[in-house]
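May I ask you to review the protein record following this short note?
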Amino acid sequence: MIGLAAAGLAAELKDGVYAGKAGGYNGPVRVAVTVKDGRIDEVEVTSSRESRGRRAATEIPRRIVQANSTDVDAISGATIFSDAIKAAVKDALKDAQ
């Protein structure tokens, strides 16, 4: 398992709720990331126009929380959406460093 530092993020994060966005296949993907006790506690996809691979909207956030890192595998058939979620989380966590 690769931690936040290896994924290009600070190892210690400030608690709070942070918003991030990144480009998806059909437009921007927006997320809300909750940091609690210096770790990623929750990731929610708050807005997306993606029509393929909707499973990624729940599975990628679950994997990110479990790994405490954005360095997680994409969902097969939803690589662009998976990568957009991960990029949006990285964008959100810039404010938590």
